[in-house]
Write a structure and sequence with these properties.
The chain is mostly beta strands. The chain is about 10% helix and about 35% strand. It is built from 5 helices and 24 strands. A hairpin with an 8-residue loop joins strand 4 and strand 5.
Length: about 400
């Protein structure tokens, strides 16, 4: 797969083009070190964190990871897969990829992870996070993990849904994993409505942190979709892990993990605002808006909405009773936790940030703002100078 837009430079387009690009992304809607070159997927499973002492964090800048060379294909933005249309059947696999945190034309770019392990299906390109899987409550799922193309064992594990012991996808307790060259079909019932996390559970400290995570959404029967709906996966990264897995000249140990990159749907701000590569949320006045947050990282994050109070309506697949709901504007989300917030787009129309209020998580290295900042814009302001300025920072000409 060739890297997209290598020769395109900064995108140009009209306001209509921006809105079309944002809608096509599928996130919004009703539904410097001179490192050695690495082999495509070489290295032992425990290459990260060997016997040598971990390099001091102060000697490593996250942007150094960009200089580690690989010949991997680039990831693409996440797609949505309707499992109802497939009778609950899906085949997934893993592909070593290179991943852009910040695009070439965005402020602070390029900034890349030289190796990630991305989920892929026969119909979709590899992405970080993996494809958004959507299904209706009660559907029986058959998720086949095909490990034909990767040199490490993997599994498929999903939170929130009941399944048989051997389909839990946890080698430590089942004794089962999918070895290279093999495949296994996980039979799982979509028996719990809600927003759920899926990930690889083999050597989880590495595989989850290398990008093997995604969202499985189970809609209840008769689900009433809001006017606008978004799925936001938040993640903290220590870029030394990716660089070390790619053969870079840096040692890493999870005992010394110190995140230096913070993403929303795999991108750092301002790239998160890019309508083709990021995940901007475009609303109209009066819209009922629902955002599903999933924390695929190892740290807790305090997600804050600017100028819009909300209520938490779901947590880990459980519906919050109306009597227990109250207005909030900051919601803590722990590792693997899922929370769904809902609000009305009734503020003064403008461009607003949706960000982690651990403010050092809203940075790219030593630069602020950046990191874990998502964006929401009212459609009526997408022809303003201010909106165009934000798009320019993201590397997109509105």
């Amino acid at each position: 797969m060739a890297r997209e837009n290598d020769d395109a430079g900064r995108r140009t387009g009209s306001r209509r083009g921006f809105l079309s690009a944002a809608a096509a992304l599928g996130t919004v809607g009703l539904a410097g070190c001179g490192a050695p070159r690495a082999d495509s997927a070489g290295g032992a499973e425990n290459a990260a964190g060997g016997g040598a002492a971990a390099q001091q964090v102060e000697e490593w800048a996250g942007s150094d990871s960009t200089g580690v060379e690989t010949d991997h294909p680039y990831t693409t933005p996440r797609t949505t897969i309707d499992l109802d249309e497939r009778d609950g059947q899906l085949t997934v696999s893993t592909t070593p990829c290179r991943h852009q945190l910040l695009g070439d034309e965005s402020q602070g770019g390029p900034w890349e992870l030289p190796e990630v392990w991305a989920w892929q299906t026969p119909d979709t390109d590899p992405s970080i996070p993996g494809p958004l899987l959507r299904v209706t409550e009660g559907t029986d799922l058959e998720i086949t993990y095909d490990n034909s193309d990767h040199n490490r064992p993997h599994t498929f594990h999903v939170h929130g849904l009941s399944k048989s012991w051997m389909d839990d996808g946890v080698p430590t307790t089942t004794g089962q994993q999918v070895a290279p060259g093999e495949e296994y079909t996980y039979e799982i019932s979509a028996n719990q409505p809600g927003t759920h996390l899926y990930h690889c559970h083999y050597q989880t400290q590495n595989h989850l942190d290398m990008g093997m995570f995604g969202i499985l959404r189970v809609d209840p029967e008769g689900y009433e979709a809001p006017d606008k709906e978004a799925f936001m996966t938040i993640k903290d990264w220590d870029t030394r892990l990716s660089a070390s897995m790619a053969g870079g000249d840096v040692d890493f140990s999870h005992r010394d993990r110190n995140p230096d990159a913070f993403t929303v749907n795999g991108r750092c701000a301002p790239y998160t605002f890019h309508p083709e590569q990021g995940s901007p949320l475009i609303v109209e006045e009066g819209d009922r808006v629902r955002i599903h947050y999933v924390n695929a990282g190892y740290e807790s994050h305090a997600m804050h909405t600017h100028n819009h109070g909300f209520t938490v309506v779901e947590k880990d697949g459980g519906v919050i009773p109306e009597a227990a709901r109250h207005r909030e504007d900051v919601v803590p989300i722990a590792p693997a936790e899922r929370k769904t917030i809902e609000f009305t787009a009734s503020a003064d129309p403008g461009v607003y940030a949706l960000h982690c209020h651990k403010v050092n998580h809203a940075m790219n290295g030593d630069t602020y703002p950046g990191g874990m900042i998502g964006g929401m814009a009212y459609e009526s302001v997408t022809d303003t100078e201010q909106f165009a300025s934000v798009m320019e920072l993201a590397g997109y000409e509105a």
